[in-house]
Task: inverse folding
């Protein structure tokens, strides 16, 4: 069962600093001022199995209750009809929002949603007037991995392959405090090996910079991939008297913002502090451009896109029926071939018997003619 939540947030305040200088060297500062003046939409998608702490993480990320936690006591009361795969988007002026999605059947609804946002943006670009364009393209997709301690399961691999080619995919190990540091590091290494072996595309931020401190920071962020996180909106007191966000256990406190405990600070820095603009730019120049180019090569201008399959279960049922029909046809073909072979064998046997009977008839005719000749010759001699 997969849940997916989509959070579209306005950008955080960007402080523009008046810098002297002109020319190419000052272009980054000019771009900074433009973004600070115009602002930008930034959309985060969070997906993964149910119960891995997506809602808690988002609330922790923005230090506010963006989405109310689910009432687990009522989870068993949900009817099967309430588990349809849908994606609902809620907008707000405050950072963050989202809703729950059940993706039990397949990755199709998630991929369709991402493609649909690209499609809507592309159709707005094709209009004569492009002012007030609504941009809901997903700039970062956090895929939460269950902390099993082993490796990625087949569903994780399949979903991540599909997402990596469409969006800035960022793998996240959920509930890192449930694993020991040694097991967690081994688990992360196993995930990295599978990602490399399966050729899964994940987001990689620019590393090199003229500033050595920035280069070192970027390197530290990327070496933490996949990011192991702990989510908690509760304040707890450590043994040394510090008040922190974290989870309290009998053996101590798992701190959210402690780099020795998890990678939460690195992931937060990547998303909303150091690389938000790069995520937006990569979405625009790579993922959206790939989608636009693919669609322009296969469609005429203004032609609508083929409607995605709105219910993955229907597609699975259709595929199952098709496979069952194919198997039945193959079975009937085998039975028909056997029956045809039996008929041919029976025909050959009857032909052989008929030929044998024909030979006997010829022998009897020869004997009968010989007898007649003998009797005639005998009567002539008399």
Result:
């Amino acid at each position: 069962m997969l849940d997916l939540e989509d959070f579209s947030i306005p950008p955080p305040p960007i402080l523009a600093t008046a810098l002297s200088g002109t020319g190419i060297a000052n272009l980054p500062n000019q771009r900074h001022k433009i973004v600070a003046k115009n602002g930008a939409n930034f959309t985060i998608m969070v997906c993964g199995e149910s119960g891995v702490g997506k809602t808690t993480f988002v609330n922790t990320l923005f230090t506010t209750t963006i989405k109310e936690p689910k009432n687990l006591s009522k989870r068993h009361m949900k009817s099967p009809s309430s588990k349809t795969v849908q994606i609902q988007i809620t907008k707000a002026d405050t950072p963050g929002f989202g809703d729950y999605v059940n993706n039990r059947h397949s990755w199709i609804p998630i991929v369709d949603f991402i493609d649909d946002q690209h499609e809507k943006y592309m159709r707005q670009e094709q209009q004569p007037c492009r002012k007030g364009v609504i941009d809901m393209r997903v700039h970062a997709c956090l895929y939460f991995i269950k902390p099993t301690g082993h490796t990625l399961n087949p569903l994780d691999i399949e979903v991540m392959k599909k997402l990596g080619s469409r969006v800035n995919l960022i793998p996240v190990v959920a509930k890192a405090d449930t694993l020991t540091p040694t097991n967690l590091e081994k688990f992360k290494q196993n995930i990295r090996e599978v990602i490399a072996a399966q050729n899964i595309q994940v987001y990689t931020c620019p590393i090199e910079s003229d500033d050595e401190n920035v280069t070192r920071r970027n390197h530290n962020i990327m070496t933490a991939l996949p990011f192991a996180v702990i989510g908690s909106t509760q304040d707890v007191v450590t043994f040394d008297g510090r008040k922190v966000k974290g989870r309290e256990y009998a053996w101590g406190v798992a701190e959210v913002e402690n780099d020795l405990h998890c990678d939460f600070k690195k992931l937060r820095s990547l998303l909303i502090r150091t690389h938000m603009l790069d995520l937006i730019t990569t979405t625009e120049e790579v993922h959206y451009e790939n989608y636009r180019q693919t669609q322009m090569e296969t469609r005429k201008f203004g032609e609508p896109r083929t409607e995605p399959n709105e219910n993955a279960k229907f597609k699975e049922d259709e595929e199952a029926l098709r496979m069952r029909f194919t198997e039945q046809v193959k079975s009937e073909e085998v039975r028909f071939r056997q029956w045809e072979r039996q008929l041919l064998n029976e025909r050959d046997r009857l032909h052989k018997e008929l030929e044998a009977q024909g030979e006997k008839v010829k022998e009897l005719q020869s004997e009968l003619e010989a007898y007649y000749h003998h009797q005639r010759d005998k009567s002539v001699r008399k």
Q: What stands out?
A: The first helix runs from residue 27 to 38.
